[in-house]
Amino acid sequence: MLAALSCTFVQTAWFTDVYASDDTSSETSIQNYNLENMMVYGNSDKTIENPYTTSGDVDVISRQDIENNHYTNIENALKTIPGVQISTPGYRGGEYGYSNYNTELTINGENNIVVLIDGRRIDNDANSYAGNKSRVNLSTLPSIENVEKIEVIKGTGSAIYGADAAGGVINIITRKGTVKPKTTIDISTGSWHRHNYAITHTGSSDDGSLKYAVSLSRQFSGNSQYKDTATDSTHTFDNTGYRDENASLNITKDFNKTHSLDVTYNHSYEKAYYPITAPDLKYIDSFFNGTMAPIDPITHTYIGLNSSINGYRNIFLYDAWLGSYDETQTNDIDVKYVFDRTDENAESFIRIYKDYTRYNTMDYSNIWNIPYTYLNEYWAEAKDSPNAHTDIEKVTGTTLQLAKHIKNNSITGGFDYRKSSYDGWDSSNNYDSQRHAYNIYLQDKIKISNKFTFTPGTNYSYYSNGNYNDMNFGSTNKLTFSAYSNYNFDNKTNMYFSASQIFKPVTGLDLSREFNNDPLQDEKGYNYNFGVNRLLTNNDSLGVNYSNVNMSNAIARYSVLNTDNGKWITKAVNAERKKQALNISYTHDFSKIWKFSTTYSWVNEHFHSKNVQHNPDGTTPDDLINAYRPRNIYRTHLTYEKNNWFGDLAYTIYSGNDKRYFTNSQFGVLDLVLNYSLNKSTQIYFDINNILNEAYQTRAISAYNAGALPESGRNFMLGVKYTF
After folding, report:
1. Where residue 10 falls among pLDDT bands split at 50, 70, 90?
2. Which neighbouring-strand residues pair with 11?
3. 519: Cβ–Cβ under 8 A, 6 or more apart, which residues?
4. Any idea of the CA torsion for 70, 72, 75, 78, to the nearest 10 degrees?
5. What is the pLDDT of residue 47?
6. In which order are the strands placed within the sheet that holds 114-117?
7. Residue 17 has pLDDT above 50, yes or no
8. SS3 assignment for 162-229
């Protein structure tokens, strides 16, 4: 049995001794479990059942996993799951509406995913942050200190999650109160003047019916560092510092076993500086001596400077030196009243919620065309006249869900209504958008036999007409179908399969970027997901998952250069898209002390534009819209746990990189986590990341030469956690 094993080692429910049985007496055994819908995490004598899914490829990151590995944010936890890729530009900050300069989250290579907090969607139908097609800015998510567990479902998973979860679903479940009062203080410090502080308190009333949880956290960092390939040396990544603050409160009142009221409030604030790209040090001399392009003798500005010139991205050093930043503030409130629960814990409830996020962005692109040799002439003016942009997203909504368990049928149906709005402005323009949407869903999880469960589902999605920046767009709707199945051959082997229709409406932001000869259409297609889990021996387990997303129409975004003003324009076109993904997980227990796990994730993706063959600047859309990220990811973990010690040594390989955009076809990153418990109350921990100080990237931009977005070099954190 696995004991307190990292979630990376427990990629499916089959990585532990599991036995299919209808005998309810087996529930008290830590070795015998019913296989349906069961996910094993952390300590293997604990289980979580999701009553809405039909097994499948589901991973759970538990609170114990979070504490063992000291993840500083949700992104760091998610990237340990096979098939989940977090591609970052190497810094936290970013620009609203520009995907290249934001962290991208994908499942099986697909960025059309649904992100939930406590089962509630947090995207905006009127607009999208555009950091990724999941329409969610990861910096707005709750603090990792406020997370109890994270469910990751590959594929749509259930009809209740909507018709647009082409890649999968991520459900972040926040912490709730405890019967006994508990307070935890976590303090750490490390490289680059990083300091993290967090305090969490949970408790309840005397009779235990009223529970509460409060969490506060703050993180700071100065400029990070990275290993540069061209110079084979470590450099400071200017303007990459940040300040992150989070506060959350949850109050739960249990009236009886089936009735409860849950109120949750989350606040987050982040000010993150961003440099756009790292400098191109191979061509830095031409930047400093002002020879990147011809200079106008009168205006002292470059003539014809564009990204085709080697070292062009060095002009972004001005943004770094002047201090471009992105400021994000989020306030979300969620009230949920549960008025019935089935014996499988499926809930009948009514929920109301309101989400608010404000973005303030400041950049200094007006100075890009100035040669460094004449910088003093323009510096003061540029400092006093930055480009300021504000964007506000709001969502109010309500959900009514009914659940009933009748013999072999578990029926769930519901109605979800959302009103989304967006407002944005800068010094010269105002933008606004609004949209109403509702979904009606129904599914029936049918236990056909003790071995076979089949779940058909349907979802009707309606999106109202709306506007974006005075441009009106029409309403759209679609009825979609899905089917999920799970079959247990015996107590060692399980197979699952799902097929679902995908539907996602065009956003106002994308419509504003369409070509006149290519009116954008809604995104439509199919997702197929297949997998097998096998318990090879008492100490060895294997899991295989394959997915195929075939979109008859998808929206592809990319940027082209406007040679008239030297600025980049993001365009959106209709495209055919096919994505195949394979995930293989293997775990082996050497003993009760030593554990080994390895995973492999492969993605093959291809976009093909339908109606636009050449851009105004002469480039080909197909070359620009196909993804720039590693094709293969290998992760290997060796874990040690004995008495007061816990350690995890992890090695990650990113391969299949296109050397036109990455500095190497393969990267290898080594990380180490060590924990030592002084006593039941106090724990000391030490984390060191990128031990080998590898120069690597997890994403690329075609226009700016290889290595434009480097990941962090070697860094460490030392901390202490005290619980009382």
Report:
1. very low
2. none
3. none
4. 10
5. 40
6. 58-62, 147-154, 168-174, 114-117, 120-121
7. no
8. CCCCCCEEEEEEECCCCCCCEEEEEEEEEHHHEEEEEEEEEEECCCCCEEEEEEEEEEEECCEEEEEC
pLDDT of residue 16: 31
Task: Let me know if 411 is exposed, middle or buried by CB neighbors in 10 A (0-12, 13-18, 19+).
Answer: middle
Contact 117, 142 (CB under 8 A): yes
pLDDT at 659: 87
Give strand pairing partners of 416.
399, 439
In the block, tokens 């227990």 appear at 589
- pLDDT tens readout for residues 635-662: 999 999 999 999 999 999 999 998 888 9
CA nearest neighbour of 417 among 394, 442, 436, 441: 436
The closest alpha carbon to 302, from 286, 291, 310, belongs to 291
Distance CA 460, CA 160 (A): 11
Alpha helices, DSSP H, located in 464-514: 508-511
- For 66, the token pair is 């979070």
CA–CA gap between residue 452 and residue 223 (Å, rounded): 54
How far separated are the first and last CA of the chain, in Å rounded?
A: 30
d(CA 579, CA 318): 38
pLDDT in tens, 163-175: 998 889 999 999 9
SS3 assignment, position 306:
coil
Q: What are phi and psi of 294, to 5 degrees?
A: -60, 150
> Is the four-CA dihedral 341, 342, 347, 348 of positive or negative sign?
negative
Tens digit of each residue's pLDDT (9 = 90 or more) over 138-159: 888 889 999 999 999 988 888 8
Question: Are 505 and 513 spatial neighbours (Cβ–Cβ below 8 Å)?
Answer: no
Mean pLDDT of the chain: 87
All residues at 6 or more sequence positions from 139 whose CB lies less than 8 Å from its CB, including other chains: 92, 244, 268, 270, 272, 328
76: helix, coil or strand? helix
Radius of gyration of the chain (CA): 25
Q: Are 706 and 662 in contact (CB under 8 A)?
A: yes
Q: In this predicted structure, what is the pLDDT of residue 40? A: 34
**Distance between CA atoms of residues 506 and 521, nearest Å:** 7
Distance of CA 476 to the CA centre of its chain: 27
Q: For the segment 546-564, what is each residue's pLDDT rounded down to a tens digit?
A: 999 999 999 888 777 776 6
Q: Does the pTM of the predicted model rise above 0.85?
A: yes
